[in-house]
């Protein structure tokens, strides 16, 4: 029995170099097949997060204008343009512009239109509207200036897809988002 156990232990002492090489080769092939899907999934999530940040900032400024009964302005700037601090932006940024009204009883101090602070969009390219784009809301949350209207296209730099768009309408200041395909912004949501 000892002889049998000794022979079995010798054969079951591990994997051969050929077996390890085959397993590593299979894992490498599967990784090469799956990695483009994961990269695309990451890019889609990054653009969706950026469009949500942008829409949230615009709606936050609109809500602050209604809440305090004053004009609220935000500015969308692209990479390398000057921020309100006089420095070039490293990433596309959404920042609050200084309030234009005087303090009142409901808004005793000059507050930013973006309570959660300025938003940066790292790794995102902006297109569609000339930047810096100043979006202004009146005390009822409306946009009256034609310059406030427009479409902003967000995408990953040097990548054709995914592209998302954000549209602000004149008058009511409605904000819609959708997919940008070709030259059209399909805002179904």
Automatic annotation (TrEMBL):
<feature type="transmembrane region" description="Helical">
    <location>
        <begin position="20"/>
        <end position="42"/>
    </location>
</feature>
<protein>
    <recommendedName>
        <fullName>Prepilin-type cleavage/methylation domain-containing protein</fullName>
    </recommendedName>
</protein>
<dbReference type="InterPro" id="IPR045584">
    <property type="entry name" value="Pilin-like"/>
</dbReference>
<keyword id="KW-0812">Transmembrane</keyword>
<feature type="region of interest" description="Disordered">
    <location>
        <begin position="85"/>
        <end position="110"/>
    </location>
</feature>
<dbReference type="InterPro" id="IPR012902">
    <property type="entry name" value="N_methyl_site"/>
</dbReference>
<keyword id="KW-0472">Membrane</keyword>
<dbReference type="Pfam" id="PF07963">
    <property type="entry name" value="N_methyl"/>
</dbReference>
<keyword id="KW-1133">Transmembrane helix</keyword>
């Amino acid at each position: 029995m000892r002889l049998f156990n000794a022979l079995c232990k010798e054969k079951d002492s591990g994997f051969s170099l050929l077996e390890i090489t085959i397993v590593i080769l299979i894992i490498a092939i599967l990784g090469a097949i799956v990695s483009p899907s994961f990269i695309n999934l990451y890019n889609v999530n990054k653009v969706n997060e950026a469009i949500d940040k942008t829409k949230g900032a615009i709606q936050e400024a609109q809500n602050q204008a209604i809440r305090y009964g004053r004009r609220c302005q935000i500015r969308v700037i692209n990479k390398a343009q000057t921020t309100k601090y006089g420095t070039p932006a490293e990433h596309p940024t959404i920042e609050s512009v200084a309030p234009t009204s005087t303090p009142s009883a409901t808004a005793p101090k000059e507050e930013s239109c973006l309570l959660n602070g300025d938003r940066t969009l790292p790794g995102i390219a902006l297109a569609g509207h000339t930047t810096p784009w100043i979006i202004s809301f009146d005390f009822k949350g409306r946009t009256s200036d034609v310059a406030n209207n427009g479409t902003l296209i967000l995408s990953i730099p040097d990548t054709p897809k995914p592209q998302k768009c954000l549209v602000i309408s004149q008058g009511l200041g409605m904000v819609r988002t959708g997919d940008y395909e070709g030259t059209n912004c399909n805002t179904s949501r």
